[in-house]
Design brief:
The protein has 255 residues and is α+β, with helices and mostly antiparallel strands. It contains 8 helices and 14 strands.
Length: 255
Amino acid sequence: WFNIKMQDDGLLFAGETGNALTWMNAYVEGKPVTPRTGLAVEINALWYNAIMFGIEAANAAGDKSFPAKWMDIAEGFPEVFARTFWSDEKGYLADVVERSEQDMDVRPNQIIAASLSYNAINDDIKLAVLRIVEQELLTSKGLRTLSPKNPKYKGSYSGDQAQRDASYHQGTVWPWLLGHYAEAYLKLHGKSGITTIKKLYDGFESEMTEAGIGTISEVYDGDPPHRPGGAVSQACSVAELLRIKYLLRKYEQES
């Protein structure tokens, strides 16, 4: 379905004309705004994480057949991933790669590759990813879905349904992405990163009396002052803030 397949090198390809398969799945007039057909960076990062977790679980259960089947792919995956997505010229990861063409739009999906338990990238690349995310995507309410430097950027989530959907993943800020940013940041900086992440977490205190009382909105404008939009209470926004709180407590206890 939808041309989803594993390539010979282990990477996952997905997509076909007229469809958007990743979480950036908004449509306007029946056409996907961000189709992202090909090798999506976060999908492949999650795929590697899943393979490695499967191998770990199989080993714990005494299953020798699963690791034997997947170990060659797992061992070669980081090199293939870096070769496919990393750009020496730009200094960050491509968002999507199709037919060896790297889409270098600065989007937040690459932060997921830096946050997972099993990473397909080294610490130098993780730091580079954090740097570009902080420079162009990070706001007090989450990560923008597209850099303001991009001509396709839309800084306001407003207007009719079509206008809102057109901006949904073209600059609009999503709070849930902060969970991956916080995890990547703390993994790299350890206890010295607690103050930075706590400041972001505490910054949501005022939101408790804004769009939805005692909760967090789905999205925010990409442009300051980052006006709330979408659902007045969004499960993934709340869940990732709770996960950030858990991460902070974990690192505070370790320190």
